[in-house]
Amino acid sequence: MDMNGRNAVVTGGAGALGAAVVGRLIEAGAVCHVPAIDEGEAERFPHAGNERVRLSVAGDLAEWEAVERFYSGIDGPWASIHLAGGFDMGGISDAPPEIFARQITMNAETCYLCCRAAIAAMRRTGNGGRIVNVSARPGLEPRTGAGMAAYAASKAAVAALTRALAEEVAGERIWVNAVAPSILDTPANRAAMPDADHATWPKTAEVAQTIAFLASPDNAVTRGAVIPVYGGA
Hints:
The protein is α/β, with parallel strands linked by helices.
């Protein structure tokens, strides 16, 4: 997989999956542009000192002005990978009404705004490109979202957005896809579920490999897919 000299945006790069994706893209030769919400997140980013990383404090990616400002500083992005988001647990009786709006904003709205900015930037180059979003298993299998309906709905929106946009921009050689993880094997998830069978959970490096392929020129034909990355779970 050769990404040599290509610009790739990775939102949510400071997270466990984001760090793995940036690491894989760096190995493939990409220059990674990573927006941090604040200085604290920027300081936690493990690849901050790498010569192939352009790290900047961009603010809240749920705000169009922040998203537009960030993408305007990138010269010809080939790939845009959207990992920024969040999770709120809670059944319909337990979660306050604002949880639904927050999940839609964190997961679906940030994805929409970043897709919009990425497509505009790719159109300026005329060279096509790749977009990869992150849905989730409950977004594809809503029954698995019992007890987290707001999260499931927001990730289902990401899946629908991915498929619709893939058709909309196919004629411009911009392939839009998504991955849908089950529970990722991260330190935070292990701490939250210490008795689970962690061996069955997909590893961040494995999921990063799938994302990196979808974002690369090697992906010559796949578009409009929301690919399950469940591991053995």
